[in-house]
Structure formats: structure tokens, C-alpha cells
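lol ok so funny story. i was supposed to be doing the assay writeup but got distracted and ended up predicting the structure for this chain instead. priorities right. anyway since i did it might as well share w the group, maybe its usefull for someone
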Amino acid sequence: MSSVICHSCSFVNQPNSLYCFRCGVPLTLIVCVNCRTQIPAYVSACPSCGYPVQRQRLSSHVPSMPMGNSYTDPSMRPRGGLADVFLLYTLLTKKRMPIYRASPAVYERLSPQTLARAGHYLTLTLIIFFIGVATASIILEQQGFAAMIPVSIVAALMPAVGFLGWMRLNDRLEPEPIWLVALAWGWGVFSLLPAVIVNDLLIPPLGWGGLAGFTEEPIKMLGVYLIATNPRLRSEFNDHLDGLLYGSAAGLGFAFSENILYVARNLQTNPMIVLLRVLAMSMHMFTTGLIGYWMGYLRVHGMTVSLPAVLPALAFAAFTHMLWNTIGQLPGDALLAVFFIWSPILVYYLSKIAREALVDEYFWGYGHGYAPKEGH
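and the output, tada:
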């Protein structure tokens, strides 16, 4: 059998495909009920007579669908406690079968009232963003690095935007609202303020930078957790790919504000600091992204996102962060060698779970026009 080439994006699909795997466009022909002309299935109106093409949405069947627990491999369902840490490791490192059906949570969408308040959330985002940047700027000014603030902001912002853009490209079947992704990013930037306060209290007495993994990860996670549990916003936090995006945004926001400090302090004496901090940025994206992924994974299985349920992912992320910071105390050349190997591995694993989550969304009908849509 020959492959089917998508007329919309030119992607080569497997034989007998009904929909394009890349863009979700139907690959078949249908008959217009008005003039009986054969027309492409992707059009919204008949080209011959203009009659609208009616499609039944899967969301109309959602209320009759049981929770996702009934449809997934029992070994892949969260069970709580230490077992979920090993499950998370398995999800990261092992290839898994798609989740063919999920809980009705994956078809929820934001209410019109929440969408009408998008401007308010953007205003909140700007406020907390500037608080985070101001925190870094005040610290640098007190330490005598005020002249380095502009260049350090640019050097920290560019890779963060690049990473976030890449992660958002993975979320192409049901893109998240930009204002909500920006809110998660803004929280990450703001997180520098409480992180600096807590770290200054706890780390100097112990002299162990690895402790930051156990102080910063809960702070970064909090913003993502509030989005996933807020009655107004959680309807947009549909699944694990959404959670991965929001978590990555929060982690990158924190890395951006933290890198302003590191770059400004070290750029004149060590230009390699920019590259080193880009590698560290991938770690922050991985750890908080993984926590968000787990929150979405709970939603897919019809489970409540609660602090006890999220603790396994938080512990995994905090340990990874701790290990990264502890290795960060190695001499310069050895440090770069380790990070040059480790950073691409973390990015690879993020890409892996993002691809698998995208396949899940495809089987839920997201690529076929069944994704929850609202004005973004």
C-alpha cells in the first residue's frame, strides 16, 4: 500500500490513514448532503454550493465516558507514594504505548468568564515579572554590577525564549493560551525573590549549593500547581503535554531571572558563563517541566491534583536539581564536560515525553478537530 501525503502540510502518512498525523487534517473525501458533490473532508463549506459541512464533535460524548483509569495499562497508572517515583522514571526512560482513552478532563475548556479576564492575568504577569527582574537588578546594584544589568538581561532572555518557543511547538494539536503560558513564565521570574530569601538563610551556614534543589523546586512548582488547581484555570490544564509546557515555562522564567545574576557577576572575568548558564537553564526547564507533566498525567487518569499526589515528581525534580548543583562545584573544565553531556540528555528526555504526549492527544481526537477550543 502506498503512503498518503497530506494536501495541507505535505507530511507522508502511513497507508490507510484517515487524518494527517502532523496537522490533523482529514485525508478523505465526503459527500455534500445538499448537492451530493464529493468534497475534501477538511473544508468548512461545500465549494460547489456553499452548504456548511457539519461535523459531530467527540466532546458531545464526553459526559458518558468513564474516568481514564478504566482504559490505561494498570502498570502505567499513578498509585501514590514511592512507587510513583519509579513510574515517573519509567515514563522518562522507557518507550510506552499510547494512552488511547483518557478521562473527560482532557476535553474541558475555559469558561467565557475566565477568557474575559485574560487581560487581568496578563497585568498580573507583568507585575510579577517586573518584581523578579527588579529583585535581580537591586541585588546587582548593591554588589556593584549595575553597569552589567542590561547585557545580562539580554544574555539571559534570548536562550530562555528559544527554549520556550521550542517547547510550545510541541504543543501544536491543542495550543495553550499565550496569556496563561506567560503567567507561568512570570511566576518563574518572580520566584527569584522568595528563592533568594530562603537560600540566603539556609545555604551559607551549610556551605552546600545542592540544598537549592530542595528550596527552589517547591517555589517554582507552586505557580504551576496553582494553575492546575485553580477552579477558573484548571480547565485549560488538560493533560500531561499542557503540564509540561506550563512547568517548563515556570522553570525557564526562574532560570532567566537567576541567570541575570550569574551573567552580570561573571561575564567580564569568564565569558564562558553564558554557555554554562544556558546548560543550567535546560536543567530548570527539565525539573519544573517534569513536575507539570506529572500534574497533567494525573488529570489524564482522572485523579485529583493534590500536594501529596505531586510529591513524587517534586522529589524526583529536587534530587535532579540537587545533583546538578553538587556537580556544579567541580573544577571548570570537568564541570563543562559533565554539563555538556548531561544537558542534552535532559532535553532529549523532555522531547521524548512531549512526543509521546502528542501521540496521546492524536488518539484522543485532538488532531481531528475534537480538541477543546476557546478564544485565546
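The radius of gyration is 23 Å. Residues 56-71 have pLDDT under 50 and may be disordered.
back to the writeup now i swear
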